[in-house]
Design a protein that fits this description.
Layout: H1 4-23, E1 28-31, H2 32-36, H3 49-63, E2 67-68, E3 71-73, E4 77-83, H4 85-91, H5 109-115, H6 118-128, H7 131-147
Antiparallel strand pairs: 1-4, 2-4, 3-4
Helix pairs in contact: 1-3, 1-6, 1-7, 6-7
Length: 148
């Protein structure tokens, strides 16, 4: 049985990476609420553990060199955020064995290759809302990133 915190981590990382891929090369603010929805602080002004975990995921992605950012906006967001070159190469790499739904083979060779990129597999896993698919594709992403 997978640890729920790791499944949340994979989902948060995937959502952040896909969002940054869609805006690349622009630097953007990446708000935790945009990834996991609204959070209500408690009577002491502290965020929920879920919010803290998502924010921690963003910081971890930066520490490991997957994203770059200029500063944090309290514990709400990372500002001036962009994918690193390493991550851009990883996302655009071709996955030989399908890990999400098979591409439509009636497409052109170019379109078929584009649908076989790691970022497209991540997008499909997020869209399917499948923790299993997301865990598999993000493990592949992080394994490849370790050697990049």
């Amino acid at each position: 049985m997978a640890d729920l915190n790791l499944l949340d981590f994979y989902k948060d990382a995937a959502l952040a990476i896909v969002q940054l891929h869609m805006t690349f090369p622009r630097k953007v603010e990446l708000y935790v609420e945009d990834l996991i929805g609204p959070d209500h602080v408690d009577e002491f002004g502290l965020h929920s553990k879920r919010h803290d975990a998502c924010f921690g995921t963003l910081l971890w992605l930066a520490e490991e060199g997957y994203i770059r950012y200029q500063t944090t906006i309290r514990q709400e967001a990372v500002d001036q955020t962009v994918l690193s070159g390493k991550t851009l190469v990883l996302l655009n790499s071709i996955v030989d064995a399908p890990i999400t739904e098979l591409p439509d083979w009636s497409l052109s060779q170019f379109e078929t290759r584009e649908r076989s990129t790691l970022v497209e597999h991540i997008r499909r896993a997020v869209k399917a809302e499948s923790s299993e698919q997301l865990a598999v594709v993000m493990r592949i992403f992080f394994e490849r990133g370790r050697t990049a």
